[in-house]
Every structure is written in C-alpha cells, then in structure tokens.
Amino acid sequence: LQESESENKLDGETASDSESKSEFGGSSPVPALDDTPEVLNRALSNLSSRWKNWWVRGILTLAMITFFFIIIYLGPMVLMTIVMCVQIKCFHEIITIGYNVYHSYDLPWFRTLSWYFLLCVNYFFYGETVTDYFFTLVQREEPLRILSKYHRFISFALYLTGFCMFVLSLVKKHYRLQFYMFGWTHVTLLIVVTQSHLIIHNLFEGMIWFIVPISCVICNDIMAYMFGFFFGRTPLIKLSPKKTWEGFIGGFFSTVLFGLLLSYVMSGYRCFTCPVEFNNDTNSFTVDCEPSELFQLQEYNIPVVLQSVVGWKTVRMYPFQIHSIALSTFASLIGPFGGFFASGFKRAFKIKDFANTIPGHGGIMDRFDCQYLMATFVNVYIASFIRGPNPSKLIQQFLTLRPDQQLHIFNTLKAHLVDRGILGSLEDA
C-alpha cells in the first residue's frame, strides 16, 4: 500500500497536498500523448527514443529560430504583435491548467471573466506605452487625446466592472474554489502580462535590447541541452532531473561568448541600436538616429595578467559588449531558475508540459518560462544603468502646454541658466 501511494505522488507532495487537491476536485494526470508529426515519426522510426527526441527537438528548434529571424526582419511593430500573441497563448495555457485540474468549467462567468481581466490589463499597459512613446501621435488625434487624458480612470472603471461581476457570480457551494481561481487569474496576469509589457518597453529602447537578451536565453537553453546530452553525468536540481552541472556550466561559457559576438555584430547597425520613434512628417515609425556612445567602438586596455596570454595590450570593442556580459551571465546563471520554477509548477499538477503546441518542446509557456524573468532583469538594468532623461520627450510635452505655462517654464529655465552662468557665456560667444 505504501509503495502504491508513493508511486501516485510526485516528489515533495505531502498528504495535505493530496487532501487539498481532492477538496478542489483534482484528478489524476492525463498521460502525455505523442504529438510528433507523422513525417518525423516515420523518418526517425529506427532511432532510440533518446536520439529520436534529440532530432525532433533539433529540427523544431531550427524552425523556431528561422521564424524568429523572419519576424526580426519584418520590424519592431511585427515583433510587438508577436509578443502580444505569445502573451495571449501563455495566458491561455496557464488558465487551462486551472480549469482542468480544478474542474472549474461549471463556475458561472469564470471563463469569461478571466479573459475580460486580460483585456483590461492589456488596455491599461498598452495605453500607457502608447502615451509614453508616441506622445505626439496621441496629441494630434482628438479621440486618442481624450482616451489618453482619462486612460487610468477608464482602466480602473473597466477593472471595477469585472470585480463586481465576479462578486455577483459567487455561488454558495463554490466560494473557496471561486476565490482560489480569482487569485489564480491575477497571479497569471502578473506573471504573463506584466512581463510581456516589459518586453515591449525593452523593444522600444532599441531592438538590440530585445534581440540580445532573448537570443542569450535561447543559446543557453540549446547549449545546456547539448552539453548535458553528450557530457551530462552530475544531476543539477531535483525539480529537473535531466538538468546536469555539465550542461549548466557549458551553457554559461557558451552564452557569454555568444553574447559578446552577437553584440559586436548588432552594435554596428542603426536599425538595431536606435529607439523606435514616431515621425510626424512621414506618419510612420522610424528606427534611425545618431548612435550613442554605447554603440561606438572604443579602445580598452587589457589587464596585465591577460596580456601575456592573448598577446594584446588593448582591444577595440563596443561599450554595449560589456553590458552584454551582464545580460548573458544573468541569462545563464539566474534565467534557468525560471525554468526550474516552471518545472516545479508542472510537477505540482502532474503535467509534463503546459501544452503540446510545439512537438518535442511542449507549449509556448515551456519555451518562454525563462524569457519572462529575463525581460524583467533587462528592464531594471536599463532603468538603473542605461536610460537617462529624454530631451525629445520633454520638448514634445512642453509644446502641448498652454502658452502661459510654456512662458512660465521658459522664464524659470532662463533664470536657472543665468544663475549658473551658462546663458551669459553663450551670449558672449
């Protein structure tokens, strides 16, 4: 009996877990189906399951990387749309797990409310982004100006509507389950929508801040799998039994080197380094600017200890490459913990993958579990070490003020410059 009970539980599951699951109507997991395309099944039929999985993952990985290059070529607006689609799919996968495990299909309005809250949160975040980055476009169009002025009030009113609908939907026999699923929805919104919003912010700072971090996570995932597949012997963490120290360490060094090389290549192109801006003259979004110091080659002295090894005293590189070391280090050392977190989540609910959208890889969320953690780090990193005041945005806002307000700011700024002696020196020149 003890052996039978232990087989039915995953690592770390206690009796209280089972009782809680039973209370919410949990059921045993559904066995995973083989979602590999029939063409690949026939072509790889003579291989062992280990090598078959290796080829399936490899082929699908190349297909996804090709698709990634295509959407990069199509520009930032397409990238933003793809991020939105990925966000919706990830939300769907996580919410579906809640529905399946806790039999919440019978809860009144809950499916509708979950998607309604997703709509509300996206309206709030994307409205803030449009107002922040495309201020002149918003001020030029009357409907957009009104929506921008009352954006936060409208967003709050929409959320309150959903909140009242949830309270009205409460059923006597399902109070605990309904509040549990209410929390489930909001935690999912916090993890998925907030992080995808940060990805959009990173993208508008320059495509390089979007592509390099995502590519570093992809590289680390691939190289950790490769090193673990061929050299892995030492288990890394119980949550992911297939992860090994060999894969973890090999992935780290490979990712740092990859980040340096990719940053060097991309830093030479304005289309990657310039922020996305709206051009009033052409009524279109542009990616063109004078590259900042981050993307201009500079000469650095090599430490004396390494000079005898490499044979150089100086090296020319972009300052962004130094920042890429921080990004790739986070992607390879801390980023995998997003995957470990997702593994623990899946083990808690006895599921192999979030979905079977991508054969050999699972669902969309299985591929983006580390990306969301990386997006938060990049956004915090930019705000802490990179971004400064943007004069163009300040001027745009200044021009939308009333004449008396503009005059007041002008006189204040003039008095400040005179006191510092800057205005006088300019007049003398």
Describe what you observe in this structure.
This protein has 20 helices and 6 strands. It has 429 residues and is mostly helical. It has a domain at 38-261 and 333-388. The chain has a two-stranded antiparallel sheet. A two-stranded antiparallel sheet has the order 3-4. A two-stranded antiparallel ribbon has the order 5-6. Helix 5 (76-102) runs antiparallel to helix 10, helix 6 (110-133) runs antiparallel to helix 9 (151-168) and helix 12 (245-266) packs antiparallel against helix 15 (319-333).
Secondary-structure topology with pairs:
Elements: H1 2-7, H2 15-23, H3 38-43, H4 49-74, H5 76-102, H6 110-133, H7 135-140, H8 142-149, H9 151-168, H10 175-204, H11 207-231, E1 235-237, E2 240-244, H12 245-266, H13 270-273, E3 277-279, E4 284-286, E5 298-301, H14 304-310, E6 314-317, H15 319-333, H16 336-348, H17 364-386, H18 391-399, H19 403-419, H20 422-428
Antiparallel strand pairs: 1-2, 3-4, 5-6
Helix pairs in contact: 5-10, 6-9, 6-10, 10-11, 10-17, 11-12, 11-15, 11-17, 12-15, 16-17
> Helicity, in percent?
over 70%
Distance between the termini: 93 Å
Order of strands in the sheet with the most strands?
1-2
Low-confidence stretches: 1-33
**Count of discrete alpha- or pi-helical segments spanning 4 or more residues:** 20
Overall strand count: 6
Give the integer mean of the pLDDT values.
Answer: 81
Keywords: Lipid biosynthesis, Lipid metabolism, Membrane, Nucleotidyltransferase, Phospholipid biosynthesis, Phospholipid metabolism, Transferase, Transmembrane, Transmembrane helix
GO molecular function: phosphatidate cytidylyltransferase activity
Region (Disordered): 1-33
EC number: 2.7.7.41
